[in-house]
Design brief:
Oligomer: heterodimer
CATH topology of chain A: Helix Hairpins
Shape of chain A: elongated
Low-confidence stretches of chain A: none
Shape of chain B: globular
Strand content of chain B: under 5%
Radius of gyration of chain B: 20 Å
Largest sheet of chain A: none
CATH superfamily of the largest domain in chain B: NADH-ubiquinone/plastoquinone oxidoreductase chain 6, subunit NuoJ
Order of helices and strands of chain A: HHH
Radius of gyration of chain A: 17 Å
CATH class of chain A: Mainly Alpha
Structural class of chain B: mainly alpha
CATH architecture of the largest domain in chain B: Up-down Bundle
CATH class of the largest domain in chain B: Mainly Alpha
Strand content of chain A: under 5%
Helix content of chain A: over 70%
Low-confidence stretches of chain B: none
Structural class of chain A: mainly alpha
Mean pLDDT of chain A: 90
Largest sheet of chain B: none
Helix content of chain B: over 70%
Number of domains of chain B: 2
Chain lengths: 101, 169
């Protein structure tokens, strides 16, 4: 078989990115939408670490910052979800429409 | 030490990661989705190890799987409604959504095929025992400012999450 080059890792990262985008655009459950956003962030991380083998350690440091930001965003997003769930007992995205005109 | 069976482990880990990614976005029960996402994250940690990034792999397992996914599971247990699993799972715009995502995938593959000459072939080999030390040196010299901003961001996230989850502010 062909030796594993950088492009193999980039194709895997692109596939995970596309799966995350499909999850964000098509699911109704808010928690699964947030988990699809985490999939997208992980695809970006794989891209960064794959390129860091060519261009130096900067990609890995950036990947660590991305993981930190993903933690902060997941905490705040789930806090918003819990606060909303207390008002209206639903977890579906299309039923969260209190600001709709 | 030379790596062994790189092709086999790459295809195993990446196939398992993509398969569990498909499981994340298609399961009805959010607990099943969370477990599939944990499997994806562990496979990605294995891929980081193959890319000579042991520190990022360790951070991924400890922070992402051990922190963020446990938080997700807690919140799923709090908001898990039995009736939400019997309703429709996909919204009404699923066809344009899938078409847009496939167009994005085609764009990625086109870029990778056309830009093939830009990828330098012989990859660098970092000495394996010094990865953490070198990342530490870069964090405290080149990336000192983003490091401090990240700590500020975490403080803001803590305050925000606590305030939003309180019953009475």
């Amino acid at each position: 078989m062909a030796p594993i080059t950088t492009i193999h890792y980039l194709v895997v990262a692109a596939a995970l990115f596309v799966l995350g985008v499909i999850g964000v655009l098509t699911r109704r459950n808010v928690v699964i939408v947030l988990m699809s956003v985490e999939l997208i962030l992980n695809a970006v991380n794989l891209n960064l670490v794959a390129f860091s083998r060519i261009w130096g350690l900067h990609g890995q440091v950036f990947a660590i910052f991305v993981i930190t930001d993903a933690a902060a965003e997941a905490a705040v997003g789930l806090g918003i979800l819990i606060a909303f769930f207390r008002n209206k007992e639903t977890v579906n995205v299309d039923e969260i429409d209190l600001l709709k005109w | 030490m030379e790596p062994v069976a790189t092709t086999f482990f790459f295809y195993l880990l990446s196939g398992l990661a993509i398969l569990s990614g498909v499981l994340v976005i298609t399961r009805k029960n959010p607990v099943h989705s969370a477990l599939a996402l944990i499997l994806t994250l562990l496979c990605l940690a294995g891929l980081y190890l193959m890319l000579y990034a042991p520190f990022v792999a360790g951070v991924q397992i400890i922070l992402y799987v051990g922190g963020i996914m446990v938080l997700f599971l807690f919140v799923i247990m709090l908001v898990n409604l039995e009736r939400s699993q019997k309703e429709k799972q996909f919204n009404q715009q699923w066809v344009p959504g899938i078409l847009a995502a496939v167009a994005l995938g085609v764009l990625f593959v086109t870029i990778y095929i056309k830009g093939d000459a830009l990828f330098v072939r012989p990859e660098m080999r970092f000495p394996e025992a010094e990865n953490t030390q070198q990342i530490g040196q870069m964090l405290y010299s080149n990336y000192m400012f983003p490091f401090e901003i990240a700590s500020l961001l975490l403080l803001v996230a803590i305050i925000g999450a606590v305030v939003m989850a309180k019953k009475r502010i």
